[in-house]
Amino acid sequence: MTATPSRSPEVDALLAERAHPLAESIDVLRRELLALPGVVENVKWNSPNYALADDFATLQLRRPTAVQLVLHTGAAAKPDHPEIVVDPLPAGAKWAGRNRLVVTLTSSPLPADDLATLRTTLAAWVAQLH
Q: Angle between the 112-127 and 23-34 helix axes, to the nearest 10 degrees?
């Protein structure tokens, strides 16, 4: 993915304060999310959050042994949004509801094959947002 990421100082501060053991994986996720055209990074729900026209991804950092990337269609439910299709699913991914995918990472660094699938998933997800 080619873009110049614009990291949020607010997210930088949050991550520095948390000092998460999987910081390397968090950094990879940030880089991949920010490489998507038009993505804005901020803090929402006390977590790193990513948006285009609406929120679509949030990093959950509650557990020291895992980082969760939650892909969604925004803060409010959108029952009329077409169902998002992602295939193949990245390692550690589980559907947590309609148009809500949770990818759980438990190691750093992210293996190259997993990173490639994650990139495909992110591109497919944002292509289906309306």
A: 40
Q: What is the pLDDT of residues 40-91, one digit of tens each?
A: 999 999 999 999 999 999 999 999 999 999 999 998 888 899 999 999 999 9
Cα–Cα distance, 64 to 45 (Å, whole number): 18
Helices (H), 4-130: 9-18, 23-34, 112-127
Answer whether residue 109 shows pLDDT above 80.
Answer: yes
Domain regions of the chain by residue span: 9-127
pTM of the predicted structure, to 2 decimals: 0.93
DSSP state of 93: E
Q: Which residue has the tokens 């947002």?
A: 129
Domain 9-127: give its CATH architecture: Alpha-Beta Complex (3.90)
